[in-house]
Write a structure and sequence with these properties.
Helix 3 runs parallel beside helix 4. The chain is of the alpha/beta class and 261 residues long. The structure holds zinc ion. Zinc ion binds next to loops. The site of zinc ion has 5 residues, from loops.
């Protein structure tokens, strides 16, 4: 059986400073082999990198770093940051992210978001790296820009919140669709319908911890440990055995991110 991989987890964030090692050890014991840790700001990348370097013991899952400039932190970014990104990627990363466009939290700076996203798309393209996409109320725009960029390496639509048609167009462009805590709520009809409709090769799982707490931990700090129960619930939604979900989601991630165990 393939191991479980959390495809999007901010385990480097301060919310985990007091129990990060214990959480990761328990994740590994239950069968999690890797977590993808996305970058959000230039200022955060060194802490991300040192977290990754601190947990190389086989008692822990592997931490796979990505570097990127998140659209919800526009005030933290400055004009030279994309050049820095290019340099950081040379140190080794599985993806560029998380990057994208967000019209839900703040649409007043959309012009700056657009420029930043386009610039990072071209960096990803030159490094032949997949991208981790954050898109809120911007699915069509993101897909258009990805297409125009000529990016061939695909990526992950993280915490997907679009329509089935948009998901299918993303899959046609080489993307996987990320499902997590949001799909554990009984009222999540739209997400669940998309999860049921997509083929196995399009699906990956994530926690986005410490955010997007699942139904069984509502109001709490989310944790990568919750991924086991999240995938059990999503297996019921898809009416497939849970080990199959582990298996194909991991296979999808290993191919996309070019990782081997
Ligand atoms: Zn995130």
């Amino acid at each position: 059986m393939n191991p479980l991989i959390d495809s999007h987890c901010h385990i480097d964030f301060a919310q985990f400073d007091h129990d990060r090692g214990a959480i990761l050890e328990r994740c590994r014991k239950q069968g999690m082999r890797a977590l993808v840790v996305p970058g959000v700001t230039l200022e955060q990348w060194p802490a991300l990198q040192s977290t990754v370097e601190r947990f190389t013991d086989p008692a822990y899952p592997r931490l796979l770093p990505a570097y990127g400039l998140h659209p919800c932190f526009m005030d933290a970014h400055s004009s030279g940051d994309v050049d820095e990104l290019d340099a950081w990627l040379h140190q080794g990363a599985v993806a560029v992210g998380e990057i994208g466009l967000d019209r839900f939290h703040d649409s007043s700076n959309l012009d700056r978001q657009l420029k930043l996203f386009k610039d990072q798309l071209s960096v990803a393209r030159s490094h032949h790296l997949p991208i981790l996409v954050h898109a809120r109320k911007t699915q069509d725009l993101v897909l258009k820009l990805v297409k125009e960029s000529g990016l061939q390496s695909g990526g992950i639509m993280h915490a997907f919140s679009g329509s089935l048609q948009q998901a299918q167009r993303a899959v046609d462009l080489g993307f996987k669709i990320g499902f997590g805590g949001a799909g554990t709520y009984d009222r999540a009809n739209r997400i669940r319908a998309i999860l049921r409709a997509l083929p196995q090769h399009a699906i990956v799982f994530e926690t986005d911890a410490p955010d997007i707490a699942p139904s069984f931990a509502m109001g709490d700090r989310n944790s990568p440990e919750n991924l086991f129960r999240i995938v059990e619930i999503l297996a019921e939604v898809r009416q497939e055995p849970v080990d199959q979900l582990w298996s194909y989601s991991s296979k999808n991630l290993q191919e996309l991110l070019k990782i081997t165990f």
